[in-house]
Amino acid sequence: MAVAHGSRDPRAAVAVEALLEGVRRARPGLDVRTAYLDHAAPALPQALSGLDEAVVLPLLLTAAYHSRVDIPAALRESAARRPRLRVALGATLGPHPLLVDALERRLAEAGVPLGDPDTAVVLVSAGSSDRGANATVGGVARAWARRRPWWSVTPAYASAAAPTPRDEVVRLTRAGAPRVVVAPYLLAPGLFADRVAGDAREAGAEVVADVLGPAPEIARILLERYDQALHRPEAVATA
Question: I need a surface site. Which of 71, 105, 129, 170 has the fewest CB within 10 A?
Answer without folding.
Answer: 129
